[in-house]
Every structure is written in C-alpha cells, then in structure tokens.
Design goal:
The structure holds two protein chains of two kinds. Chain A is of the alpha/beta class. Chain A has helices at residues 27-44, 59-67, 78-92, 119-139, 141-146, 152-170, 172-184, 202-219, 232-235, 241-248, 255-262, 268-289, 291-311, 317-330, 346-362, 366-371, 381-391, 394-401, 404-410, 435-445, 448-451, 482-496, and strands spanning 52-57, 101-104, 109-114, 413-418, 423-428, 454-460, 468-474, 500-506, 512-518. The chains are: A alpha/beta, B alpha/beta. β4 of chain A pairs antiparallel with β3 (71-76) of chain B, so a sheet runs across the interface.
Chain lengths: 522, 428
C-alpha cells in the first residue's frame, strides 16, 4: 500500500565523515556505530536503556536460539529438538529466512546479530534491538511489573541444572512426562491480575530446594504411623465446602500455580518443574501483550536513528538504499485478499502508529484536534511517544491512539464470523460511523486474555473423591477445540492424579454447553 | 557496551534436545524408513535422509479455541469495496484461513518433515541388528598394533625422556654422594672471606677453610648434576589389537528365470547387507559370487549393476564359495557367513548336490547361512514350494545356523532383514 511507504529520507546535508562504506563489518565498526547511535538515541531521543551486550553468532546458532524460545540457556526437552528439526528443514528448503537479530529482555540487554549480515544490516539491527527494544524492555510498565531482567539468565541457569539433576535422580522419562504436561498447560500458567511476588534468583531457589529436602528427611518420624485414627464423629462433620474453596483460593486461573500448590500426588521435584515452566510463561506474558508496540517502538527508533545518521552525513547513499529496502519489506502489509496475507503485521501497524503520533504532535489536522485534544500540536513528539511506550500495552494503546487517518490508510474493516452462517458480515469500515467500532474491535483483538480461552479451576475436592473441576467460560459461543482439549485434559489429569472434569458453560454460568472428563492413566 | 564473539562457541548446543527428540519419535521414524525403502534405492541410504513422520508421539496439545462454533470478530486491512452490512462468502475449508488469530491448531502439525543425518539414519535403520555367533575364532590382526605404556627404560629417544623420573633419580644420587649444593659453597666462600678479612688473620683457619672449599669444589666437579644413569625414558610396547575376522559370501542367482523385479529384490537385500556390514564391521570382508549355470566371483559393481542371463545351477555357486574359502579364508582363521538369494528354481538334478555341499562342507564351518527366496506376489504362499525351498526346508530343521525367508515385495525386505539379523535371533 502506497500509504504505508516510509516518508522520503531527509536530505543528506551534514558534513560529518561517513561511518562505513561497503558491506564488510568488523568489531571496531560495530562498536563505533553503536557509540555514534548512542549520541542520537540517548542524547536527541532521550531513550533510557540497559547496558548493551552485542553477541555475534552463526546461522546455526541462530537456529539453536530459535528452538529454545530465544533464550541463551534452556533446560533440555525433546520439544526444543523438534522445533530445531522443523526450523532447520524450513531454513534449508529456503521456505523461511532467519531473523537478522534476536534480543533478550535481560540486564545487560543481550542482542544477537548474525555474522552473515552486511554492515548496513548490523547497523539497522543495533538501532532496532540495542536501542529500540532495549528502551521498551526497560520502560514499559508491563515488563517492569512482571519481569526481572537482571535475574532471568541466572534463573535459566538454575532451571537448566535443576532439570538435569532431576533427570539424573529420577530418570529422563519421568522428568519428560512432567514437563510434557506442564508445557501443555503453559498458557494457563499465567497470573493475569496479581503482581507476582519478587522472583527468586537461582541461588535462593537452590537453597530452598535443598532446605525442602533436608526438612523432609529431618521431620520423618515413624511414630506418626501409630497415631490413632480420627474418630467417626469428627470425620462426619459436614465439610465446609466454602471454607475449603477459600483456602484453596478458588477460583484460580493459573492452573500451573494451582497444581504446584495443591496437587495431592506430586513429588516436590515435580512441583519445582511446574514452577519453572510457570515462571517462564509469566516471563513471556508481557511480550505477548506488547508485541505490536514493542516492534513498533523498535522499528520507529531504527528508522529515526538511521535517518538522523544520514542527515548528518554519516551514512552513504548506498547504505541508505539498502536500509530502506529492508525497512520497507519489514513494514509491508499485504491486503486481506492477498495470497501473502497472514494477519496484521505488528511491525507495519506499530511503526505506522508511532509515526502517526509524531504527525499528530507536529502537524495536526482539525480531525486530530477533535480526537486527540491533548496530543494534537503539542510539539514534543518524543515525549509523547516515550510516555505511550511506558504506560500502555497493545490493547490499551490501540484504544487510545489509533487515529481515523490510520484506519483510512490501512483501510481497516471489521467483519464478524458466525460459525453457523455461510457468510461473514461486514460490521464497520473506515467511515465516520465506523472509526470507533473498528478501533474497539481491533483493541479487543490485541487483548491476550480474550484470545486465550478463559479457564479456571472452580472446584477441587481434597477430602473425598479428589475430583478437580475446571470451568471454561465460553465467550460468544466459541468452544474449545475438542481433540486438543481432551489431550490436554489428559495431561492435567496426569498431574492431578485423580479424575478431572472440564465444564464449558456460557458466561452467565447457567447453561452447560459441553463437558469433558479425563482419568489419569496408571 | 560489550561485543562478544560467540561464533566459536561449541557447536550443536541442542544436541541433547535432538537425541531426546529422536528417542521419542524412534518408532515412527523407523516406520517412515521402512516406507521409504519401497520407493528408494538402497544405494541412496548412504546420504542424508529426509523423513516425514506422522507425529503422534510428538504432539504438543494445549487448550485452544475451536474453529467451528460461536461468533468471532476480525479486523482486516485493505478494504476495497465493502460497506457495512455486506456479506463475504467464507473461503473453502472454514474461516480459519482468513482469520488473523493465532496459529493453526493441531491439524497442520500432524505431518512432520525433517532431515536425519546419515549416521542417525543408519543407526536407527540397523538398530538391534548384529551378526550372529561372531565367535572369536582367532585373534590376530597385523594391521593396527596399539602402543601401550610399559614402564621405563634407561635408553630411548629424547622425546620420550621422563623428566620427573630422571630428576628424582638425579636428586637421590646427588644426596647419596653428598654433592655439595650451590648454597653450601657460597657459605664456605663467605666464611673464608670473613676469615681473611679478620685482623689479625688466623692462617690455620684460613688454610683449613681453603682445603675444605677445594674439596667441595672438586666433589661438585666430579659428581655430575645429571648422570647418564639417572636418565629414565618412557617405554612403550606394541600390542597387537585383537580383532575378529569375518567374511560374508553373497551368492546371487542371475539366471533368466530371475526377472528384473526379482533381481531387483535380491539386489536390494544385498545392498542392505552391504551397508550394514561395512558400517558396523570394519574388518568384515565381503565376497560377491554371481551364478547362472556357471558361477564366478565378481566385484561389487558387477554384482549390483551387471546383467547376465543363462540357466541355473546353484551348486556352482556353492562350489565357487568353497574354492574361495580354500584359497583365502581358512575356516580355522575366519568367521564365515553366507547369504544366498534366488527365485527358488534350480536345475532339477542339481538339488542333491547342493544339499550335500551344504550339509557336509559348508554348514559345518559356517557361522550362519541365510537364504532369501524372492517371489512374485502371487507365488508368495506356503502351499507352493519351489524346489530349492523344499530342499532347504529339511536343512533348516536340522541346522540352527541356517535360516530361510521369502521376500515378495520391497517392503518385505527390511522386516526379513531384521528377522535374520536381529540381536535376539543372534543370541539364540
């Protein structure tokens, strides 16, 4: 779409010396480019970043990182091997190219760059990851709230050695079974509303595990076997179901947390494994919630930095052309009826929205003044952007900042798809009546909690049948995928150790739409 | 800012994951390999292998929203002509292809293609297989003697000088012979200087000190710091590495009755055998014998690729095998194996001769003799017995080192091969 093409680069008028010429990169050049970009990013744009650590890797190492969900360290599991085999096959058949870069939310912020990249690409990557993503990681409230970047690498180190230790003690297969089940429930391993308690670092974790073992051994006393049985009278006391529910903290949306704390049959090491998977899931939760903004921020930052360098005369025309070529392919948004279409491109929408905020601040139209009275014409666009990057996530960001102009530029339209109907219906388009509706629907699409099924543990009987009940609150009549749900439920039953029931009921809670059950296999 | 060059870090970081993954999918991968044998030439198994498996054991389910119920909203870019209230027909195969939410769930992942390295492929391919009764008939091999440490000697090339030992012996000798140390001499010299500087000088003491000093210096000159008798060298012995010697005779019927498809079956079998042997038994010799009404030892290329037609006299091949054995592979020194493939036809007067050769000369000295009968699909049942099958059946009943199987189509080859060389059967 023509509207999506970046603005023409500014005139090259500065008389500073060009930083590099040609495509070969060297370590000194990378350092020099990083430092010069720092002048712009920190000085002119006022970004605030973790110290950078740039690591040069090969294509094979990039594939390695892919398979371990982008982390530099990971415990061993067959699913990572599967992912590697698949990515490698795609890559070798040329079906997929590798990312130029990978960045980790850690302190110092680690960016991987590939040795195959040209110097222009390395510059682009440094601006994008080492400044753009880095700033976002450090300043966005979601990341501040949920992640502890100075601990993550240590924690992964702990997780890796802990899993290895378990494999040694209890056998690869037992560990694998537990991890398989935990992975299946990974998306339900997130606490969406509560701020987590400060995350334990590797050492504290290890100490805790050791303490737990020591306590177990120390408190074992054979005499407990001889305690008199509870008398009939006490046992038949009416179970205070409500109390028990409260004690268990039901309803609970974080299935992994619930199992870790309450599953009757799990060993301590299994609880620890559930905890590892749960913490990883929680760590990635902010990334899922801010994908579009995060990429938008990084893309905007690299675009501004590269243009500034060019204006100052520090980039050659050739470099600029190469940069623009890859920039415009990154932010390419095919139309819905294009064969290449696979959803809204977060880079495209994110970059366009950042640019749009800059436009509203500096060259507002009458429409903008009406829609964004506080923002329009305020002038300091960088301040406005920094604020947006710090205080929003994708859903609220769209709700707050998506302008009618962008809806027109992208020609966005909303359709609703009823599984019972043969056709989909257009609900809103880019016109006066439709702007608000399109914006609201798009915001909802970016709300992760409405994209994942709404599952909760609603009942657990710990004294009698030990049955666990899960409830899926069905929104808009969308049921769970049956085969997937049953396979996952089986894993859940395996962890719980007793019968597990999954009830799908409508949001009002008065109509049961479907039920699934699973029993643990011996 | 810090730049780290990770390119030289150890490779294959995910090897552990890969092994776990292969172990998990092992059953399915082997199924896939068996399937691939139908269409693929065995010679190609020596290269990397692309495998597609139905990933039953590789499923990673999760709770996800289904596609065929309820109401969904999408926001899409690129509207051209639609107005509010317009209807868009759903694309074939449900709305999923057009939706912008998430990944396809489950279905698309059932078929899973990836590449096995040559080693991984062959490891899985020949898993649990081995040559039966590989007794160490004779331990000898002159090819690769191993060097083994064998103490110390007083003589040897400088490179093998053992410094620690040498110095230890030198120190002991010097102490025993009371060779004065540098410090001792120095002390005496100082004493002497002090005595000389004394006023008045004591000539007696000076003379005594001087003679002591001279004595010590003489000792130091005559007693060497390192003497030839101190020298110690590492000693190595050449130890012949014991290996088992084995030879595999491949006998194939190349007569006219063996049609091309049948020959192809036989060749596939031998190819498999060939790959198996060359991979796992580096010392195994392989002898290829091809026969019509006459038999000849041929090279690998001719055996697998050559074309020849004629009558069928199986005993010629057996005789050729015995001849080669007499010339090069004495049963006293070698483990002897044989695999024979034919379509079961033989010149009718020849059977008794064959059985006699087998029973009296070959089987007594053979570790294992496998017979493969290739047959057309319609001939593949037990009621129709070929002359050879009939004759060999008796042998199979009496001899434990004789096995026979039928192969009717390429997909039989791997199971049959597996049966003939499975580790279990070998242990029996």
């Amino acid at each position: 779409m023509a509207a999506m093409m970046p603005k023409k680069p500014g005139k090259r008028r500065g008389n500073m010396r060009t930083l590099f010429d040609g495509s070969e990169w060297t370590f000194e050049l990378i350092r020099k480019v990083h430092d010069v970009m720092g002048e712009i990013a920190l000085g002119e744009l006022g970004l605030d970043i973790y110290p950078n650590q740039i690591e040069v890797i090969t294509a094979e190492q990039m594939l390695d990182s892919y398979s371990s969900i982008g982390m530099p360290l990971m415990y061993r599991h067959w699913s990572f091997g599967k992912r590697f085999a698949r990515d490698e096959a795609y890559y070798k058949r040329g079906m997929r190219s590798l990312a130029y870069e990978l960045v980790i939310n850690s302190d110092p912020c680690i960016s991987y760059v590939m040795e195959e990249n040209s110097m222009t690409m390395q510059a682009l990557v440094i601006a994008h990851a080492a400044y753009g993503h880095n700033h976002f990681f450090k300043n966005n409230y979601q990341f501040q709230l949920w992640t502890q970047p100075d601990h993550i690498i240590d924690y992964l180190g702990f997780a890796k050695s802990y899993v290895a230790e378990c494999e040694e003690r209890y056998g690869q297969e037992a560990v694998e079974t537990t991890l398989d089940a935990a992975h299946a429930l990974m998306n339900q391993g997130v606490s969406r509303d509560l701020r987590p308690r400060p995350r334990n670092v590797a050492k504290r974790e290890q100490e805790k595990a050791a303490r737990r073992r020591a306590h177990e051994e120390a408190t074992y006393d054979d005499i407990y076997r001889t305690l008199p049985e509870i008398t009939k009278e006490r046992a038949t006391e009416p179970p205070e179901a409500q109390n028990e529910q409260r004690r268990l903290g039901l309803p609970e949306e974080n299935l992994l947390y619930f199992l870790e704390k309450n599953a009757p049959k799990l060993e301590d090491w299994q609880r620890e494994l559930l905890r590892i998977v749960r913490l990883l899931s929680q760590y990635f939760y902010p990334q899922r919630q801010t994908k579009m903004m995060n990429e938008g921020c990084a893309t905007f930052v690299h675009y501004v930095i590269m243009n500034r360098l060019y204006e100052r005369g520090q980039l050659t025309d050739g470099t600029m052309l190469e940069f623009l070529h890859s920039h415009s392919s990154v932010i390419f948004q095919p139309s819905f009826n294009d064969r290449r279409f696979s959803g809204l491109n977060p880079y495209a929408l994110g970059f366009a929205m950042m640019n749009d905020i800059r436009r509203i601040c500096t060259e507002p139209t009458a429409e903008d003044r009406e829609w964004f009275p506080e923002l329009a014409g305020s002038g300091d666009w960088m301040e406005a952007l920094r604020q947006a990057w710090a205080q929003f996530r994708d859903e609220s960001f769209v709700l707050q900042y998506l302008s009618p102009k962008l809806i027109r530029d992208f020609r966005l339209f909303a359709v609703s798809d009823d599984a019972k109907e043969a056709a989909m219906e257009v609900k809103a388009i880019h016109d006066e009546q439709g702007y608000k509706d399109v914006r609201r629907r798009l915001a909802r699409h970016y709300d992760v909690s409405t994209q994942d099924p709404d599952l909760q543990v609603t009942d657990a009987d710990l004294s009698g049948s030990r049955r666990l009940v899960l409830t899926h609150r069905v929104r808009n009549g969308v049921l769970l995928d049956k085969t997937e749900a049953e396979r996952t439920l089986q894993y859940l039953a395996q962890l719980w150790g007793y019968r597990v029931k999954l009830v799908e009921q409508d949001v009002e809670g008065n109509r049961v739409l479907k039920e699934h059950e699973a029993l643990p296999m011996p | 800012m810090q730049i780290v060059d990770r390119r030289l870090n150890p490779k294959a970081k995910s090897l552990g994951n890969r092994q776990r993954f292969l172990r998990r999918a092992k059953g399915e991968i082997r199924e896939a390999i068996k399937d691939s044998l139908r269409s693929r030439k065995i010679a190609e198994t020596e290269s990397a292998e692309k495998v597609t498996i139905r990933s039953k054991s590789l499923r990673e389910p999760s709770f996800s929203l289904g596609r065929n119920s309820g109401l969904r909203d999408y926001v899409l870019p690129g509207n051209e002509e639609y107005k509010v209230g317009d209807e868009i027909p759903k694309p074939q195969g449900g709305a999923g292809g057009r939706g912008n939410q998430g990944s396809p769930d489950g279905e698309g992942q059932d078929d899973f293609t990836f590449t096995l390295t040559k080693d991984e492929f062959l490891d899985l391919f020949f898993d649990d297989l081995k040559l039966p009764n590989l007794i160490k008939v004779k331990l000898k091999d002159l090819k690769a003697p191993r060097l083994v440490r064998a103490g110390f000697t007083t003589d040897g090339p400088p490179a093998r000088l053992n410094r620690t030992r040498t110095m230890r012996r030198s120190l002991g000798r010097r102490m025993a012979l009371r060779r004065p140390s540098e410090a001792e001499l120095k002390r005496l010299e100082q004493e002497l200087a002090a005595a000389e500087a004394e006023t008045p000088p004591d000539p007696k003491r000076i003379a005594e000190l001087r003679s002591r000093l001279e004595h010590k210096q003489r000792l130091r000159r005559t007693i060497a710091y390192i003497d030839p008798i101190d020298l110690a060298y590492n000693r190595f012995d050449r130890v012949p590495k014991p290996t088992t010697q084995a030879v595999m005779f491949c006998l194939m019927d190349a007569s006219a009755s063996m049609t091309e498809p049948l020959k192809d079956l036989a060749k596939r079998f031998f190819m498999l055998l060939h790959v198996f042997l060359t991979r796992y038994y580096r010392e195994v010799h392989i002898v290829f014998i091809r026969h019509t009404s006459t038999a000849a030892e041929v090279d690998e290329e001719t055996f697998f690729r050559g074309t020849e037609t004629g009558g069928t006299v199986i005993s010629t091949a057996l005789e050729e095998m015995l001849k080669v054995m007499r010339e090069r592979y004495s049963p006293a020194d070698w483990n002897i194996y044989a695999a024979q493939a034919s379509d079961g036809d033989n010149f009718h007067d020849d059977m008794p001769r064959c059985l006699e050769l087998l029973n009296e000369q070959i089987l007594p000295v053979c570790q294992y003799f496998a017979y493969i009968e290739t047959a057309h699909g319609e001939r593949f049942n037990d009621t129709v017995e070929t002359p050879v099958w009939h004759g060999y059946s008796e042998v199979a009943q009496r001899r434990r080192n004789f096995a026979m199987r039928r192969v009717a189509s390429p997909e039989d080859i791997f199971p049959v091969f597996h049966e003939l060389f499975s580790a279990d059967a070998a242990a029996a």
